[in-house]
Amino acid sequence: MGWVRLGCGVNIGWLTGNVRDNPLLIEVGGNPCRVTLNAIKPGATMKQAEDFRQESRALATLLEPLGDKDFDQPTLFKGWTIDHVIGHLHMFNAAATATLESDAAFQAIFAPIAAGLADGQSLLDTQFPWLDGLKARALFEAWRIGAERAADAYANADPKARVTWAGPQMSALSSITARQMETWAHGQEVFDVLGVKRVEKDRIRNIAHLGVSTFGWTFINRGQTVPDVAPYVQLTGPSGVVWDWNTPQEDNVVRGSAVEFAQVVTQTRNVAETSLKVTGKDADAWMQKAQCFAGPPIDPPAPGQRFTLRK
User: Fold this and answer.
1) Quick check: 278 and 219 in contact, CB under 8 A?
2) Which of 3, 174, 222, 271 has the smallest set of CB atoms within 10 Å of its CB?
3) pLDDT for 241
4) Per-residue pLDDT at 90
5) Alpha helices in the chain (DSSP H)
6) Is residue 201 classed as helix, strand or coil in its secondary structure?
7) Which residues contact 273 (CB under 8 A, 6 or more apart)?
8) What is the CB neighbour count within 10 angstroms for residue 107?
9) Contact at 8 Å (CB) between 77 and 308?
10) Three-class DSSP category at 305
């Protein structure tokens, strides 16, 4: 099954059936249109939705052995406990799932958050009314189920569909990529406090791409002029594959590990603690304050502030 836009410019919505081997011939306005598999966006194969699922499962595997009291351990991220982290992810996964349903469903979750923030509450404080006492192992199980539900919902969504969020609308593809980014980034403080080095996968490319795409946002969010030319970015994934973005140039470039780049743009590490090779004033200015997530401008952690604890 898949969402189809015909080559002749007609959107006919959903088709069902096996189209793997046999193209479909459909007559529109008396003119035949051929629909092949390449014209169909399969409903269950949005790669980014599966990447989000696997990111969530990697974090769930880490947390599975923990008992109720273990979730009270404070992390190196603003003193949030593991429980706080999972509550945050669970609430916004639910909001991301709800926005696919309707604006009203999204606002039912987000409006109280926005009202709390307007009243001076912290983002952490706004999650407690929604969680309604859910915590520890019970919260972990609810988050795990909710993450699978979100992955299923986005796997069957049109990647280009516009969905409501806290800021401007975004595509469904961007929405689920943001959920993977948040799961990976907040997962870092959990891996850190438990003293476990995460096994990284090439799905990190989604987060690196988000980081590159928010180059301009980093400056705009701080009321600064965006440099005329975005730096060339060349990164090596965990498998050894090399990815690059933007126009090649030697005087304005960021090179190195995709994982370390992702750590910088998600602000889980300071660029000074990485082996990234940053050349040029614009590239350096970006890496000193890169921020790939929404919200007010936030400075990255100071060197030595975020690290993996030894157990």
Assistant:
1) no
2) 222
3) 98
4) 98
5) 47-63, 82-101, 103-118, 123-131, 136-155, 172-193, 204-213, 215-220, 258-265, 281-289
6) coil
7) 303, 304
8) 16
9) no
10) coil
pLDDT at res. 43: 45
- Answer yes or no: do 63 and 191 share one domain: yes
**How does pLDDT run across 105-122, given as a tens digit for each residue?**
999 999 999 999 999 999
Q: Is residue 218 part of a domain?
A: yes
Cα dihedral 284→288→293→298 (10° resolution): -150
Side-chain-side CA neighbours of residue 62 (13 Å): 23
Say whether both 82 and 191 belong to one domain.
Answer: yes
CA distance 243 to 217: 21
Enter the tokens of residue 10. Answer: 């007609």
- What is the per-residue pLDDT for 23? 35
Please report, for the domain that includes residue 154, its CATH number. Answer: 1.20.120.450
The confidence score (pLDDT) of residue 251 equals 97
pLDDT below 70 — which residues of the chain? 1-44
Give the separation between CA 173 and CA 150, rounded to whole angstroms.
Answer: 12
> With the C-alpha atoms ordered 196, 197, 200, 204, is the resulting torsion angle positive or negative?
positive
Q: CB within 8 A of 266, min separation 6: which ones?
A: 181, 184, 185, 188, 207, 211, 292, 293
